[in-house]
């Protein structure tokens, strides 16, 4: 006869008794497991009611000040357009905000119902300003609370300011880099166009116009800078020429002869006008009194003649 | 609003309720502060020294008799972790035992409201309290314990705060709000706690069990099951 491993049952039921039970049909073949009786929770409703009746105090409402009511209307849900009818099962104890709002609204509903009744019974609900009495929380505690709230506000404002500043700086930097890049691009384009013109690849001076739209401004823009550039070129040319001679291609070599046959035959620096002029105010004959003022007699003569 | 500012000085204190609030030894700081907060909020309460947990609970009935109290709030701390609360009607019962969780005391800086010390509270109950028999019993018990009697010598005449009891998730949630405006704007004062009903007895600290909460799991069981879960997670790793 198969039995489970409960040692208690082995000691309680002897083999003979088990055989008896089997023959009577109480036990079936196979593994018999002792079933644990399901735990029954006491709910003595009658007893509870009786107890309640016994110890209930029938005192006036004004002594008890109790109210039983559901929560007040949820204003937030109304404004958002959600379903107004709140069922009890809706409270999710893990959703802190919803749960606390439910308690708050329940308290609100009680206040709205009870205050008129209190006013009827002439029980004051508002503390007058000159009524000073001990509070549940000391002044020191309230001061601490106020400070905490203030510090929170300040820190929030600071972080907001810092965020804004950061964002502004970022934006500013972006704009700055863009502007610089734009300027560099323009400069590069202008320089390449100018060089092209210098090298003679293009005749047009279109690059000077830039992004100006009207024809008038185009013309004006075309003339002024063009003339300036031409002059510049010439000026640059002469100076450039001299400098190129002196320094270009490694400059003049030192230790070169200079009174050679070629230099002797070179008469390019001969100025006939200067050479054949008889004025003393040039070259060696130059005297301090080159622009001499005529004498008194000569001046008077001239004066008389002019009259 | 109302005609006279002065409260009625001729009112006589008729509803003689006195609640003995005390605890056992081995109580944590949070629970001790909660107890002190309740003593502050209830002017009809009386304090007492800590009781040794080795004494039997029915000794409390004698203590209450000596102090002339007819209600008792006894906080029992076990393992320096779990806090149980007995709320009883002393001479003949009934009594209820709760497990207290999620304690927030008056000192928390996030609870910004304040009220007069000893002012009478409004009590607000969930409609669910009227449905089941055991909830109705608890409601009556709460009303008798927490409502400050009218014209109590230590009470203030103004009604400026409200206690709410709500049933959610098979537990009773307690909140205390300050009434700021007549239109119902409230600020939380504290304290806050959650009561998990264990049993209701017919007598005071004893007697036949009238109700047992099927949803209640003792903190030891909770710790045990969570430990088992972590152990079962780690075993396969060991076998590798």
Automatic annotation (TrEMBL), chain A:
Q: Where is the composition biased (Basic and acidic residues)?
A: 208-222, 259-268
Q: Which domain of life is it from?
A: Eukaryota
- Annotated region Disordered: where? 208-307
Keyword Coiled coil applies: yes
- Main location, first listed in the record: nucleus
Name the residue ranges with Basic residues bias.
284-307
Keywords for this protein: Coiled coil, Nucleus, Ribosome biogenesis
State the GO CC annotations: nuclear periphery; nucleolus; preribosome, large subunit precursor
Q: Where in the cell is it found?
A: Nucleus, Nucleolus
Record GO biological process = ribosomal large subunit biogenesis; rRNA processing
> Which InterPro entries does this one have?
Ebp2
Say what the protein does: Required for the processing of the 27S pre-rRNA.
For this entry, the protein name equals EBNA1 binding protein 2
Q: Please tell me the species this chain comes from.
A: Chiloscyllium punctatum
What are the leading ranks of the lineage?
Answer: Eukaryota, Metazoa, Chordata, Craniata, Vertebrata
UniProtKB/TrEMBL annotation, chain B:
Q: What keywords is this UniProt entry annotated with?
A: Nucleus, Ribosome biogenesis
Identify one Gene Ontology CC term for this UniProt entry.
nucleolus
Identify the domain of life.
Eukaryota
**Record function comment:** Required for biogenesis of the 60S ribosomal subunit.
Q: Which family does it belong to?
A: Belongs to the BRX1 family.
The Swiss-Prot or TrEMBL record annotates one GO molecular function as: rRNA binding
Q: Which InterPro entries match?
A: Brix, BRX1
What are the BP-aspect GO terms? ribosomal large subunit assembly; rRNA processing
Q: What is this protein called?
A: Ribosome biogenesis protein BRX1 homolog
Is the ATP-binding keyword given for this protein? Answer: no
Q: Name one Pfam family in it.
A: Brix
Where is it localised? Nucleus, Nucleolus
- Keyword presence, Secreted: no
Q: Where is the Brix domain?
A: 17-206
